Amino acid sequence: MSAYANDPRVNDVTGRGTLFLVADKPDGEPVARVRPFIDGATWVAWPVDENLMTELPEFGTADEAIRSVIGDPQ
Question: How far apart are CA 42 and CA 60, in angstroms?
Answer without folding.
Answer: 5
